[in-house]
Predict the 3D structure of the following.
Amino acid sequence: MKKTIVLFACVVLMALMSSCGGSSYDSARCDALVEKVKSGSELSQEDYSQMIGQCSAILDVYEAKIKEIGDSPEKLIAAIADKEMQSIDKQYNTMKRALKKADLDESNKAAYDEFLKKQEKYEAGVKELIGF
């Protein structure tokens, strides 16, 4: 049962994570980018660049949250129920879907590839943490 809860929580936290770039997470900026995606507005290469950076920053948020949780089932349950983390997860998933479909320029392609490597490394760490 404990492994199931930990696995579920890690999956939820993985979904909250994001891209490369060295920028820090900015909720308002993510909201603006998500709104552009949802409204069907044309996205610029600068928008994509910011999405990549924000997705990477979200991964950093996830990693910090996992360290904070440690092996505490109570903290894990609280993280899953946390409205802010749920909001971050929605932002992450929306931006990630937009990036997957995007026609990126060379610079953004390189940054996106780095983000994917970071995400892969994060996911591997989560799997190791939960014993997969």
Notes: Residues 15-21 have pLDDT under 50 and may be disordered. Helices lie at 2-15, 27-39, 45-69, 73-81, 83-101, 106-130. Residues 45-69 form the longest helix (25 residues). The CA atoms of residues 18 and 119 lie 7 Å apart.
